[in-house]
Amino acid sequence: MDKIDSNNQSNDAANNDKQGALHGIKVLDLSRVLAGPSATQVLADLGAEVVKIERPGIGDETRHWSPPAFSDHTSAYYATINRNKKSLTVDITTLEGQKIIKQLAADSDILVENFKVGGLEKYGLDYDSLKENNPRLIYASLTGFGQTGPDARRPGYDYIVQGLSGLMSITGPSDGEPHKVGVAVVDLFAGLQLTIGIQAALIARQRTGRGQHVDVALLDSALAMLANVGMNHLASGKVPPRLGNQHPNIVPYQVFAGAGEQHFILACGNDQQFARLCQVLDVDWHENKRFATNPARVENRKLLCDWLADKFAEQTRHHWLDALTKAGIPCGPINDISEALAMPQAQAREMIVDFSKQGSPVRALGNPIKLSESPVSYRTPPPNLSEHTDETLANLGYDSEMIAKLKADGIV
Asked: Fewest 10 Å CB contacts: which of 51, 122, 281, 298?
């Protein structure tokens, strides 16, 4: 069994006695694209053994979503969420392919899939069928709309769900069109919810000895993401407006520009911070009843923010960030991606993973989970298509002739 390395491969020797938190857990990954694979990558980073099932000759769609790609032709998109996995190609539409999946499922702790509701029943790979041979199996399904309800069988896409959920209605400039978030945030959030559900099911299995079906939907996740803005509606009955970079409940809490249109974020979260802001600006607005409290500032948002915008335009962003930071007022620049990844803090937290030691050109974004006794590890780069087919089938008892025939028949 593999030993689990530290987050930073330079510390391998010092930490090679530490196993990942999910060491010994076997995951059968039938998911593809982003949401499902993002969940199984978290499980893999935490030490689980993940076998990714891909279509023979094609693989996960994201293998072909390039440019950009690394020098070994691994697409950046595929590399985002498929490290630490083994690739096994199987045609699940064939009886022999279904047999292989059932053999793997019988020995797995977790199965993750993101097929349309009912899509795996015709192959005998649904939860009710597989739990007969493995009642301890945790079967995790991630779909657009969940396993129940009138829309259950609709296909789900992050972009569409951002629109359906109301998330886009509150994103973007107040006087412009609704915007989606810059990354597929619903997919990623749902993947994290699925991961949490899987880990909860693992803990429950310790008590009951039984697995269960984990059901997570993109729409449910997106609705939960509405958080305080959704609660604002439930509390008031009013439809929350689109506020651009402004906060619906706190003022001033938004983007401003210094001289030369250099933008920065001001996050003034309470009355004490606002009073200190006024001191920095050399004004007495905190003594004005229209601005003395946060509810009053929310009520008079436009007037105050117009005054602030005029004041901030008098000096550079650097001037204001320095003065605000010294006064203990939360603020920060708006970095581009290159600037963000180059930050010393990001480097110190090992948020960029280099797989050159494993002979791969892939560099990837790191895992944000830091565990002191069972750290995440970056054992292998994203696999080549079918890289582990022979090994996995041999472990199931297939000899070289049987494997060769499966390949000749296009089953693996």
From this structure: 122
Cβ partners under 8 Å of residue 123, min gap 6:
92, 93, 98, 101
Residue 196 parent element (H or E): helix 185-208
Whether 68 and 216 share a structural domain: yes
Q: Is residue 208 part of a domain?
A: yes
Task: Let me know if residue 233 belongs to a domain.
Answer: no
Catalytic site residue from 5, 29, 91, 187: 187
**387 burial type by CB count under 10 A (0-12 exposed, 13-18 middle, 19+ buried):** middle
Give the Cβ contact number of residue 66 at 10 Å: 14
Which of 335, 361, 377 corresponds to the end of one domain? 335
Is 134 contained in some domain?
yes
Assess whether 106 and 169 both reside in one domain: yes
Chain mean position to CA 344: 23
Q: Residue 246, Cα to own-chain centre: how many angstroms?
A: 25
The tens digit of pLDDT for each residue in 259-287 reads 988 899 999 989 999 999 999 999 999 99
Q: What is the mean pLDDT of the chain?
A: 94
- CATH code at position 293: 3.30.1540.10
Confidence at 18, pLDDT banded by 50, 70, 90: confident
- With the C-alpha atoms ordered 310, 316, 318, 320, is the resulting torsion angle positive or negative? negative
Q: For residue 10, is pLDDT > 50? A: no
- Decide: 105 and 28 in contact? Cβ < 8 Å: yes
Q: What is the count of structural domains for the chain? A: 2
400-411 residue pLDDT tens: 999 999 999 999
- Reply yes or no on whether 310 is catalytic: no
The last residue of a domain, from among 285, 312, 335: 335
